[in-house]
Design goal:
The chain is α+β, with helices and mostly antiparallel strands. It folds into 2 domains: 116 residues, Orthogonal Bundle (Poly(a)-polymerase, middle domain); 126 residues, Beta Polymerase, domain 2 (2-Layer Sandwich), CATH 3.30.460. A hairpin with a 2-residue loop joins strand 8 and strand 9. It is globular, with a radius of gyration of 19 Å. The relative contact order is 0.12.
């Protein structure tokens, strides 16, 4: 019997974690529930509620911590995005949902499903420039969420990102997904597509050596320094975990 190679091992994990049609149907059901909850906050201000994050970028895992949704707020809502974020958080709290402030989202439990809600406001109806709120930095951020999705598909590093998300979650690391994605793309900029094992290994090396000193900028807005979402000690924790992964352990001990 042929032994299981590292490539086989990681490929089997990806197959196990694939988001299937059933997951997509569940996503639609949860989206309707999230839309009702957001309507309780202020239905007249909402354009739509749509899946976001890993589902749009094809970087979601079945066992992922949560489902992401973008709540598009009307341009003329008359509220600044920090007020929108805090007001929405307060409404969810009154509804007994026990919301938790995360990087730029509000985490909720909808039934048995963990959900991240991202309030986003277009700066104009003829532009794809959006404003979101970073609770970590306590400031509004201008960005382009549509461009993030396009960039992710163009980079074509979904498999590596999915493996690294599992590694992050299984090690309990505080590492925002967008930051992880930017770091992965930076690590693999000149590396071939499809070399999954070598690419994950190279990215872990990048995290070990360069995550702490290197600034990561939002490709849609260089003034948005995404790496500022984490403190230096938080970055060092990730770097140490990456170093431990590269210390001679078998893949079965690095990611499951």
């Amino acid at each position: 019997m042929r032994s299981v190679t590292a490539s086989d091992y990681l490929s089997r994990i990806l197959a196990r974690e694939a988001v299937d049609r059933r997951s997509a149907t569940q996503l639609d059901e949860i989206a309707r529930k999230v839309e009702l909850l957001c309507t309780a906050w202020g239905g007249e201000h909402i354009v739509e509620v749509v899946p976001g994050g890993g589902f749009e970028k094809s970087t979601a895992n079945r066992s992922g911590i949560c489902m992401d949704f973008v709540v598009w707020i009307r341009t003329d809502a008359g509220r600044r995005i920090p007020e929108v974020y805090e007001s929405m958080h307060a409404t969810f709290q009154r509804l007994g949902l026990r919301p938790i402030r995360r990087d730029v989202t509000i985490a909720l439990q909808v039934g048995t499903i963990a959900v991240d809600v991202l309030p986003a406001r277009r700066l104009s109806m003829i532009s794809d420039i959006h404003e979101i709120y970073s609770s970590r930095r306590a400031q509004a951020i201008t960005t382009n969420l549509h461009q993030h999705v396009l960039d992710s598909h163009e980079a074509n590093r979904q498999d590596e990102i999915r493996i690294l998300k599992l590694w992050r979650d299984q090690n309990g690391l505080d590492f925002p997904s967008f930051y992880l994605e930017l770091a992965t793309n930076a690590a693999l900029r000149r590396r071939p597509v499809g070399a999954l094992v070598d690419n994950v290994w190279a990215t872990l090396g990048f995290l070990e050596r360069l995550l702490v000193p290197r600034a990561m900028l939002d490709p849609a807005n260089a003034a948005n320094i995404v790496s500022d979402e984490l403190t230096a000690p938080q970055k060092r924790s990730i770097a140490l975990a990456a170093a431990a992964a590269r210390s001679g352990r078998p893949w079965s001990e690095i990611v499951r």
